[in-house]
From TrEMBL:
<dbReference type="InterPro" id="IPR029068">
    <property type="entry name" value="Glyas_Bleomycin-R_OHBP_Dase"/>
</dbReference>
<protein>
    <submittedName>
        <fullName>VOC family protein</fullName>
    </submittedName>
</protein>
<dbReference type="InterPro" id="IPR028973">
    <property type="entry name" value="PhnB-like"/>
</dbReference>
<feature type="domain" description="Glyoxalase/fosfomycin resistance/dioxygenase">
    <location>
        <begin position="10"/>
        <end position="125"/>
    </location>
</feature>
<dbReference type="InterPro" id="IPR004360">
    <property type="entry name" value="Glyas_Fos-R_dOase_dom"/>
</dbReference>
<dbReference type="Pfam" id="PF00903">
    <property type="entry name" value="Glyoxalase"/>
</dbReference>
């Protein structure tokens, strides 16, 4: 993989979050525990490294020690034009499940359609496409 990637740290919910994203994006998940990686700085079943592979890819783990979990202020993960409008609309709806719609998916005066949602794990997404 080249380019910029997203690596999220969760407060003990990495496996659950990656499962949610796998369902949202019709993707695959690979999980590795602290125990598998020989780590002793957290629970053996905590996620040391997780990979979401598919139309949307990202990495995630559980926090250990005094690491801070993901907190999104002033930043959004963008899915602008990353798929067709029907797919992006479906992703927006799925990300909204248990989350908060910050700005409904809607047609804008400049011709594009976009919206924003903060999912149930606190990750803010900007989803949009050109009509």
């Amino acid at each position: 993989m080249s380019g910029i990637g997203l690596y999220l740290s969760f407060p003990g919910t990495a496996a659950e979050a990656l499962g949610f994203y796998a369902r949202a994006f019709d993707a695959e998940v690979e999980l590795h525990t602290f125990d598998e990686f020989g780590r002793t700085d957290g629970p053996a079943d905590a996620i040391a490294h997780g990979v979401l592979s598919g139309p949307v890819g990202l990495f995630a783990s559980d926090t250990a020690g005094d690491e801070e979990p993901v907190s999104m202020t002033g930043v959004s993960v963008t899915l602008l034009g990353t798929a067709d409008g029907e797919t992006l609309t479906r992703w927006f709806e799925r990300l909204s499940d248990g989350g908060t719609v910050l700005d409904p998916l809607q047609k804008r005066p400049w011709g594009a359609t976009d919206g924003q949602v903060r999912d149930r794990y606190g990750v803010r997404w900007l989803v949009g496409y050109e009509d």
